[in-house]
Design a protein that fits this description.
It is built from seven helices and 14 strands. By secondary structure, it is of the alpha+beta class. A seven-stranded mixed sheet has the order 3-4-5-6-7-8-9, sandwiched between helices. The protein has a five-stranded mixed sheet with strand order 11-10-12-14-13, covered by helices on one side. The chain has a two-stranded antiparallel ribbon with strand order 1-2. α5 runs parallel beside α6.
Length: 268
């Protein structure tokens, strides 16, 4: 992707993401329809659907040759990453959106032939936009984010994860996760939005995020952000991530990657 196309995409996507954020904030005090998807904790609202439709309409009107993967199903059936592919989560953290009216984000990753070119994560209620462009660094609003701290140790790290993986489960050795909680600083954190957890890692206010299942729209933008500040993102078994399927995810400061993989992450 050449610089002119990349810059045009960044400008348009920023414009649309701010417009979508305004639309969401205007609807926060109104009643909205809530449905469930895969289970009772997997929520979707009419605001999720309308927001995704807003992006689809704008993208297709301006870039009809681009492909689009969206959580709510208004995009394309994408079976390869050839060409330019947009991967969108209109509201990441719908449970937070419904119950807290905060701590949710719009997440957009733009890929060209499988390479992450542009990532945007918009913390809607705080009006904070995280952006990253391949080879140009990452930003929190207009402030460039520093490279991740190269002196981080596990004992001084803050780890983000859902506490359920510290309970008996079929995915990961919970005993080792319990030991990780003991060995890291201050236990763990869970923010309820994978996109924000990636953004907070890129910002350097957490040092790792571990989860047993994310869809591509949950991590497509965050993957690009973390790359631009020198972090690492892989599946929890160490394999490269797969942008077309669900993944386990470990994203972290490189200084603690080997320790996490060798001492604490043991998949069943």
């Amino acid at each position: 992707m050449n610089d002119a196309i990349r810059e045009e995409l960044l400008i348009n996507t920023k414009k649309w993401i701010y417009q979508a954020g305004d639309n969401i904030r205007e609807q926060m005090e109104q009643a909205f329809k809530i449905d469930t998807k895969s289970n009772a904790n997997d929520l979707v609202t009419d605001v999720d659907r309308a927001t995704e439709q807003f992006f689809v309409e704008n993208i297709k009107a301006n870039y009809p040759d681009h492909k689009l993967i969206g959580e709510e199903g208004y995009g394309d059936k994408v079976e390869s990453l050839d060409g330019i592919v947009w991967i969108i989560d209109p509201i990441d953290g719908t449970m937070n959106f419904v119950h807290q009216k905060r701590n949710f984000a719009i997440s957009i990753g733009i890929y060209h032939d499988g390479i992450g070119e542009i990532g945007l994560i918009y913390n809607v209620m705080d009006d904070v936009l995280y952006t990253a462009v391949k080879g140009q660094g990452a930003y929190r609003n207009d402030t460039r984010l520093k490279p991740l701290n190269d002196e981080v140790r596990l004992e001084t790290s803050i780890i983000a994860m859902n506490s359920i993986i510290a309970c008996e489960n079929k995915r990961i050795n919970e005993k080792k996760i319990q030991q990780l909680i003991i060995d890291s600083r201050g236990g763990t954190r869970s923010y309820g939005s994978a996109a924000l957890e990636f953004a907070f890692l890129a910002e350097g206010i957490i040092d790792a995020y571990l989860t047993m299942q994310l869809a591509p729209w949950d991590f497509a933008a965050g993957f690009i952000l973390v790359n631009e500040v020198g972090g690492i993102t892989v599946q929890a078994n160490g394999n490269p991530i797969d942008l077309l399927h669900n993944n386990t995810i470990l994203t972290c400061n490189k200084q603690i990657y080997e320790r996490l993989m060798n001492d604490y992450i043991e998949l069943k």
